C-alpha cells in the first residue's frame, strides 16, 4: 500500500531552512523508480529524495549564452548510428517513445554545455535516419 500525505511525517532540519515539497506521483511511476533506485544504490546512497534532487539539478542546469547549438534529434541519430555500427540491435517500433529519447538527448547536450536547438517544425523523429 502506498503511503498518503497524511501518513508521512517529515523530519525538519534544526535550521528550518529546507522547505518540504509535496508531489503527486502515481504508483505506476513511483514504484518502479523506487525499485531501481534501491537496486542501484551502493550502501544506501541513492534515496528517492537524492534522485529527485539530481534530476531537478540537471533540468535547471544553465547553458552559457554563447554555447554552441545542436538539434537533439541529430544526437539521437548519431547514437543510433554508432550502436548499429557496433552491432547493437536497436529496436524501434511504433511503441518506441523517440520523443523521450530526444528530450534525454537535449538534457545531455545541456550537461555538456551545448544549447539544444531543435530545427523549426521538428518536434518528431526525422525521416532521414
Rg computed from alpha carbons, rounded to a whole number of angstroms: 19 Å
Mean pLDDT: 80
Total count of helical runs of at least 4 residues: 4
Percentage of β-strand residues: under 5%
Give the N-terminus to C-terminus distance in angstroms.
45 Å
Can you give me a brief rundown of this structure?
The protein has 129 residues and is mostly helical.
Detail the topology: elements first, then pairings:
Blueprint: H1 27-40, H2 48-60, E1 69-70, H3 72-85, H4 98-111, E2 115-116
Parallel strand pairs: 1-2
Helix pairs in contact: 3-4
Structural features, described:
The chain has helices at about 25-40, 50-60, 70-85, 100-110; strands spanning about 70, 115. The chain has about 130 residues and is mostly helical. The protein has a two-stranded parallel ribbon. The longest helix has 14 residues, at about 25-40. The mean pLDDT is about 80.
State the main characteristics:
4 helices; 3% strand; two-stranded parallel sheet; mainly alpha
